[in-house]
């Protein structure tokens, strides 16, 4: 198999979801850390910008192919390595899982990632308290919707969809990591908490945790 290299930062939830996907599929890979803060951010170096013009993580290199955007990377992995699929086999199920995953990846995460926080701080001169309230508001709004979509739905099982973890779980768990980090109370989201516990009990999720990365700290 051609080598797989993931350019990652330990606290990046987008990189975290790709680490989960790689682990669920049992794909051997090498992690290359890209520190998003040190010396102004290694993602802004000329060498890394040549790989990813957005200057974001993750980037995945599979042989000679270079891929950006976590959701596109996960789709690619699912197509190229179909064993242990991240999406269910039926069209309705795939649509449901994609909707849950995109709720996190498109609606919650972009509003509280590092570059947004830096813009609020450096350009808009927002106070630390205002930045925290911004983050907590958008997390709470998105997670409340996800709780409603999952709670009591016939397709929800041990995991977001049935009895096997997949794309939605790979997106949810990193976002809940962010919620813990920023001090968002999760009591209103019992279904999300239950799924998080089930996921983190699995080796694929445990190995992907930020604190278990080679660049953690």
TrEMBL record:
One of its GO terms (cellular component) is cytoplasm. The lineage of its organism: Bacteria, Pseudomonadati, Pseudomonadota, Gammaproteobacteria, Lysobacterales. InterPro entries: Glutathione-S-Trfase_C-like (IPR010987), Glutathione-S-Trfase_C_sf (IPR036282), Glutathione_S-Trfase (IPR040079), Glutathione_S-Trfase_N (IPR004045), GST_Zeta (IPR005955), GST_Zeta_C (IPR034330), GST_Zeta_N (IPR034333), Thioredoxin-like_sf (IPR036249). NCBIfam families: maiA. Belongs to the GST superfamily. Zeta family. Residues 2-85 form the GST N-terminal domain. Residues 90-217 form the GST C-terminal domain. This is Maleylacetoacetate isomerase. CDD domains: GST_C_Zeta (cd03191), GST_N_Zeta (cd03042). It comes from the Bacteria. Keywords: Isomerase. One of its GO terms (biological process) is L-phenylalanine catabolic process. SUPFAM superfamilies: GST C-terminal domain-like, Thioredoxin-like. Pfam families: GST_C_2, GST_N_2. GO terms for molecular function: glutathione transferase activity; maleylacetoacetate isomerase activity. PANTHER family: GLUTATHIONE S-TRANSFERASE YFCF, MALEYLACETOACETATE ISOMERASE.
């Amino acid at each position: 198999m051609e080598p797989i290299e993931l350019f990652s930062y330990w606290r990046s939830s987008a990189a975290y979801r790709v680490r989960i996907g790689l682990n669920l599929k049992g794909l051997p890979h090498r992690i290359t850390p890209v520190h998003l803060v040190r010396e102004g951010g290694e993602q802004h170096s000329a060498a890394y910008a040549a790989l990813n013009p957005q200057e974001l993580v993750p980037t995945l290199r599979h042989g000679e192919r270079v891929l950006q955007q976590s959701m596109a990377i996960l789709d690619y992995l699912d197509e190229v390595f179909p064993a242990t699929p991240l999406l269910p086999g039926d069209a309705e199920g795939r649509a449901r899982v994609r909707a849950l995953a995109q709720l996190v990846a498109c609606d919650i995460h972009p509003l509280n990632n590092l570059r947004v926080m830096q813009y609020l701080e450096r350009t808009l001169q927002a106070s630390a308290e205002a930045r925290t309230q911004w983050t907590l508001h958008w997390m709470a709004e998105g997670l409340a919707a996800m709780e409603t979509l999952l709670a009591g739905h016939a397709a929800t099982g041990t995991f977001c969809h049935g009895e096997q973890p997949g794309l939605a779980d790979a997106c949810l768990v990193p976002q809940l990591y962010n919620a813990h980090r920023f001090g968002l109370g999760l009591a209103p989201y019992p279904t999300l908490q239950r799924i998080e516990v089930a996921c983190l009990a699995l080796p694929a999720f445990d190995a992907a945790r930020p604190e278990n990365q080679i660049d953690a700290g």
